[in-house]
Amino acid sequence: METKNTNGSRSYDHDIIGWFEDVSEKAGQVQTETLRRILELNWGVEYLKKWLGDIDVRDMDASALESLYTSSVPLASHADLEPYISRIADGDTAPLLTQQPITLLSLRCDVENGIRISGTTEGRQKYVPFTDHSARTTLQIFSLAAAYRSRVYPIREGGRILEFIYSSKQFKTKGGLTVGTATTHYYASEEFKIKQEKTKCFTCSPPEVISGGDYKQSTYCHLLLGLYFGDQVEFITSTFAYSIVQAFRAFEDVWREICDDIKQGTLSERVTLPKMRKAVLAIISPNPSLASRIEESCKELETLNWLGLITKLWPNAKYVYSIMTGSMQPYFKKLRHYAGGLALVSADYGSTESWIGANVDPYLPPEDVTFAVIPTFSYFEFMPLYRENHDRSSAIDDFIEDEPVPLSKVKVGQEYEIVLTTFTGLYRCRLGDVVEVAGFHKGTPKLNFVCRRKLILTINIDKNTEKDLQLVVEKGSQVLTSKGRAELVDFTSHAEVEKQPGHYIIYWEIKGEVEEGVLGECCKEMDASFSDHGYVVSRRTNSIGPLELCVVKMGTFKKILDFFIGNGSTLSQFKTPRCTSNQGILKILNGSTIKRFFSTAYG
Q1: Distance of alpha carbon 127 from alpha carbon 111, whole angstroms
Q2: CA 27 – CA 25 distance, rounded (Å)
Q3: How confident is the model over 15-29, as a mean pLDDT?
Q4: What is d(CA 320, CA 335) in angstroms, rounded to the nearest whole number?
Q5: End-to-end CA distance of the chain, in Å?
Q6: In angstroms, rounded to a whole number, what is the distance separating the alpha carbons of residues 593 and 507?
């Protein structure tokens, strides 16, 4: 059957794409006007008065205002704005950052350490204001991206989405403001309901499953309902690729229970939350023939190591949709394995602070994805970055910075750090993301995400980023898979400096049997693959010791996930920390280590 949207849905797609094409055509002008709107709305707030004084920006020409703003207001980090946000959290109702009262705060995602770890310096709670604008732009980018996807992968109106989405528990600050993750705020908003109405596609799970608060119980119910509505599922999605992989790994263990529940119209005792049980049991009824069909498919999939699980169990699904760039890249291989040839479509580019760009080329594989900047969402500046090839010890990382330029002045092939001015009260705030301009969509730049600037592994003059670590682990895992049937499940690292000389430790969780000699080769390959000049020199002079590979028990990284969830994170925003010095995580890792290997790469 040919799958097409109805005229109403197609008309909406046409309208939102037409709007974006228009603002993209004149992106530079739109940006100048966007800054003017931000400053007019927030004129007179304490932070801006500190730098602009009593100048009435409402009477100024937009171009002159842009020039005044970028020359008078300094670049800022989150730390510079944190005192103002803390005052808001404590109940100060004066217009500090915005004229609009702030009632919601989002937990800022800390890339190095996951989302939030209570009670540690490493996981100090960091907040970002969340306003009506935040929810509206989320709805807008989701609708825009859906419209572009529907051009390539048309979906049936009234179909369903298997969404592995999770809300976290919210809490109140001293001043009475509600705090949660940005996704939690969005799932609780009217905009989330509007999104389903406008795109004419509805999630399989009721709100009680999404907001249940126990990710294991929610995941079970997502899987159960996804299979119960299996023939109606048009695509499969989650915020991060990790969540999808995690869900299907869990499915490998619980599929028999799910089949029993579908057959009998019951719900496993593993789901104990009363509201969740009631909501799910109100949906399902006994369906022995469906259960039998799923059971037969799963028995076949088990013999294939679950290759093509998605296409087998959800035959009408058109694609898998999720964030697959940056720290999600290590999950590509497993997700492709499950997808069995189904298209993987990378979701859009944003941060807790602001949405940035949409994937307007959904036919491209995740490795080639770019994001077209949406010029109405925030005012974007781009700080040119140049790589330092030689004396890297003189810089914070291997980049030399230049003065930020507006969106209209960026150049193809140049790398930049993004600087944000938002409607929610962040002014010239450095995001820490390194992007490369890959081209243009009309007049707006298309960005390729390169990496986070933040160093994650350093002992003395060595400087390695998350991307450096990912490349090294990929080299090691190639040795692993080429010499057996084992696969790398997940990894993290630690810079050990307590003992001299300091050295890197990489922790691996492996599924399958592998000979110790092979693991020794993996360790050596990773050590030799760090190309940072400071690291190579330090290894040759033994001022950094041999790399250590620690193999941990199966299930160790689930314990790390549980550790984060128990301290306020949500699965929707969880990222495995690629490097950690958190004592709680290190205790889990070291307590689960079953084998250790030291590199012989440098003799």
Answers
A1: 14
A2: 6
A3: 93
A4: 9
A5: 64
A6: 8
Residues 6+ apart with CB under 8 A from 268: 220, 254, 257, 258, 260, 261
Question: What tokens does 479 get?
Answer: 């040795």
- Specify the DSSP class assigned to residue 466: H
Q: For tokens 């960026």, what's the residue?
A: 410
Q: Which one-letter amino acid corresponds to residue 253?
A: D
Query: Do the Cβ atoms of 280 and 261 come closer than 8 Å?
Result: no
Residues 203, 311: Cα–Cα separation, whole Å: 19
pTM: 0.79
Between CA 329 and CA 192, with CA 152 as vertex, the angle to 5 degrees is: 70
Q: Tens of pLDDT along 236-286? A: 999 888 889 889 999 999 999 999 999 999 999 999 999 999 999 999 999
Tell me phi and psi for residue 40, to 5 degrees.
-65, -45
Compute the distance between CA of residue 27 and CA of residue 15 in angstroms, rounded to an integer. Answer: 18
Give buried/exposed letters for 239-269 (b at 16+ CB in 10 A, else e). Answer: bbbbbbbbbbbbbeebbebbbebbbeeebbe
Residues 6+ apart with CB under 8 A from 137: 354, 355, 374, 377
pLDDT tens string 398-451: 678 899 999 999 999 999 999 999 998 999 999 888 899 999 999 999 999 887
Distance (Å) of CA 181 to CA 122, 137, 157, 281, 365: 18, 16, 30, 28, 29
| CA distance linking residue 541 with residue 286, whole number of Å | 69
φ and ψ at 322, to 5 degrees? Answer: -170, 165
Tokens standing for residue 186:
């969005």
